Structure formats: C-alpha cells, structure tokens
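WP5 quarterly update. Target: Cytochrome P450. Source organism: Streptomyces ovatisporus. Length: 409 aa.
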Amino acid sequence: MTDVPEAPRRLDPSGAAQHAVSRQLRDRCPAAPVLLPGDVEAVAVTGHEELKELLAHAEVAKNARHFKALREGRVPRGWPLAVYATIEGMTTADGPDHRRLRGLVAGAFTPRRVESLRPRVRRLTAELLDGLAEFTGEDGTVDLREHFAYPLPMNVVCELLGVEVGLRDRLHQLFRVLLSTRSTPAQVVDANRETAGVLARVVAARRADPRDDLTSALVAARDEDGDRLSEQELTGTLLLLTVAGHETTMSLITNAVRALCGHRAQLEAVLAGTVTWEAVVEETLRYDGPIGFFPFRYPTRDISLAGTVVRQGTPVLAGYLGAGRDPRAHGADADRFDVTRPPGQHLSFGHGPHFCLGAPMARMEAAIALEALFEHHPHLELAVPDEELPPRPSFVGNSRSVLPVRLRG
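Structure tokens (predicted):
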C-alpha cells in the first residue's frame, strides 16, 4: 500500500472533456490526486468498485468538520465549491443527523407519492411541448434544454415544495452561479446571500400560509420541535431539494436527447416498442450521467482505495462518469451507448446511506419527457453537431449549456 502519488491533475472548471479526463484519471489510478480551484488538494475516485466502496465506507464522512483544509483555514473565502461542503442538510450530515433529516423528507418520495405525480408530470410535459412553437426561431431551431428539459423538473419540484412561480426562474439563475466551478469568489458570495434571502421568503410564505407541500411540512416540524430541524437545516434542505430536483433531471433529459440523436437506429428501436424508455434512461445514466465529480466525502482516518492511501480529512470527489464507463464493471464496450444493454448496476444515484431519495421521481420524469418528446417529434435532430455544443461550466455537473434542435414534425 502506497501514499496517493504526486503530481495531482488540476480539474478544468470549464467542464470541458469530462469523459476524457475521467478515463485518464481512472486509467492512471481509480483513486487519483486532483487539484480543485484555489489549489485545494483532493482525490477523485473514478473506478466503479472503488467508488462503490467509498460511498458505503463506514469511515468516510460527509460533514465538513472532517474537511482538514477547511478546518485549518486553507480554503479561500468565496470558494466556488463551498456550498457543497457547508450547506446544512442531508448531503453533509452523518449518522443520526443524516437519518433524522432524511426521515423528514422521505415521505415525499415514496413509490406511492411519486406515482401519484405521474398525471401531473404528463400534463406539464404536454403543455411544454405545445408551447415550443413560441420559442422556435425563424431557422426552425429551439433550445430544448431551456424550454423543455429545464422547466419540466423545475416546475415539478417547486410544486412539491410549494415554491411560488415568480421565484423559480430567479432560483435557477442563482443556482447556475452556485453550481458553476468557474464562478468568481465575489459571484459566489453574492449568489449565496441572495439565495438565502429567496429561500427565506419561501419559508415565510409557507409559515404564513401552510399548504399541502413539503416546505409547509418542514416548517411545521421546525416550529413544533426545534430539535427535529434547525432553521439552517430547513433552508439547506430546501436548497438541496430544489437543486437536486431539477438540475440533474434537466441534464439527464438533455444527455438522453443528445445520445438518441446520435444513435438513430437505437431511437427507431425504442419508437418501435422493442426497447423501453426506462431502458433509455438507465443507459443514459450509465453512459452519460448528469454528475461528473460530486463533492465531498472525507476519510475519518487514513484509508486505502485502489491500493493507495487517502489521508484523513482529504476531500474526496465521487467520479460518476468514470465509474459509469469502467470496462471492469460494464464490459469492453463500456464507452458505447447501447439501450439494449442488459440492466447493470450503475452508481449514478449513489450507493449506501446517501442513495438519492429522488431517484424514482427523476426516472419517471425523464421517461415521460423523452417518450412524449419523440412521439411528437420522431425526426427531431440536433441543430449543431454534438461536439460543438458548449459544456456546462462545471466539473460537478455533466451536460451542455444549450440544446438547439430542429423538431421536424
């Protein structure tokens, strides 16, 4: 067993060439040293089995009190990744605190609750498809990400949370700043401040006018027994659920459309009914999932991954793209999109105690959206070659900033 090797790779905050970077890191070492913005040293775990071990490791924590560089004041103010470490909610809690916070929201994501939302998701999808003509340019193109892949999950999660319509677009704009690894320190500070204010307005509105939504339930839990949920945890939970509930599903839909447009024979098989839309969603999650390198986990003691030592307190990134195309787990053709691939055990929704609560909802929304889109527009095609589409400016998320398409009936 050896220490993590020298010469860490600096992750590109622009999000460019994420699959190539993930493959290079995985081929070098499935637990490889990297440099984050601000020259913060970290480790990226990009192998399937190694990532699975990390996600369920009993001596790897999520709470930033274990983040050695942060604790010692070596992380700069306005650090673009700070929100992932310092937000107070499920994603940064461990043990009993994690179980308490997860339990408060789990009821909103039960199979029965998710299934009850299916008719609403279908209606929203139909409304968005009917409205695409309004945004179609003279050249016949429309940005499908902006006018379809984004508003569908954003409206669903905001209805679930009770966020007023007038606040949704502003939250999305703020999240773009907070989730971009290219944001400047000043932009991050300002966006954090405004986001806190907007979410405080959501909480105040539901406190004054409780409804049948998750925010009202969380406010009631907070007001009835402050030991169950602090005000900071309430705000952090809303931030987490809003971001996770729309950003990843938006990118999942975007990436699936891109993959299907680039593999017309497979699209024809799905339209013919020989392959399910659910299979398309699962293969997209494996092949081109919405998360690149997700922050952070921290060993509470020195641990061994892939034969190397990851030191106590080192921030560790979960490299989902590398794991999704790991040939050791998915075969020699792991770099090939194949909707007929036998169901595998991809890790795109995580593994272990922090497995994504919203996975059933994301799967349902994406399958409904893709089926309706291609039934309405079976000849839809990209208006720009896929390789020319600009990436989202982040190595955390994995998608494109725009998705211009020609609907063609």
